[in-house]
Design brief:
The chain is of the alpha/beta class. The protein is 35% helix and 13% strand.
Length: 365
Amino acid sequence: MKNVYYTVICIACTLGMIACSVSMKQNSKTDEAQALLKTLKTISQQNHFLFGHHDDPVYGIGWDGDENRSDVKSVCGDYPAMMSFDLGRIELGGDKNLDNVPIERLRREIIAQYERGGMVSLSWHTDNPVTGKDAWDVSDSTVVASVLPGGTQHDKFMGWLGKVADFMNSLTTSDGRKVPVLFRPWHEHTGSWFWWGQALCSATEYKALWRMTYEFMQQKGVKHLLYAYSPGTEPNNTAEYLERYPGDDIIDLMGFDTYQFDRREYLNNMEKALTILTEVGQSHDKPTAVTETGYEAVPDSTWWTETLMPVISKYPISYVLVWRNAREHSNHYYAPYPGQASANDFMKFHADPRTLFVRDMKTKK
């Protein structure tokens, strides 16, 4: 085992055994959510980090929908400790999300990951409520304003939030406990490729969108969420990073998203962003994470141990998560699969005592 201390914490998280240290007022988090937050904080302080992969157990290279399968697991024999999924299109009431994964399958996999000792992060690439197109439609700069109270799309959008809240409240174990998850809406807002991005709304409107989202979830009894704030690497200093920060009373974890295209540029962006992240995380007493990253098709055979590990291991992050292994696009994958060029190097990455996978979150009985 890489670290028994973490395994004890995470078993407590899974079983809901860590008592909440704050008073049980109306807006407090569940015991399980408090335990998850404590685990993330502890990990980030101890030179360990969880490895994460988006959509890990629902499809991969050459397969789709198989049960108990994972490209990561096929390479190293272990599931990622962190899995992420997306709720995009759940707001429309259909039975599948934007990546054509059944909503019911997402529910089952989230619960299964929790019960095996792992953690889950949920993003929400929600459609543009003004145009009816996807989240990447930035043709209208009034969308955020339109969903806020008094806006033309407010009532419709609150209905959309209601579907998200219903899904969150459905994440329950067989004994009735709500599964704690990290919710990461309105991400990469320092770019302008989503309708909630930098050039599409003011800082005041963006913060109001966050607060409206949070307060609605509280009203609906969704108390088992942690909330993540994750811009891109556009900010050049802590002031820019915090320019649209919605507040310590809402946010539980701070992170950022970035991807490699050019190695030198990637390393420079990572160093800059991780330096800023470390400072704001410490000053606001929040755990930190690289909430999205990766190198498409991972063509560098030693990328895991010679590019990613050297830079992230210098900073106190709680997890690093790479994006999905798409089954519908050739070469659009970010984790290795058996026979892939970086698979052997990934096994070294997995064996490194600093990396935590699902088996590291459990202890021998």
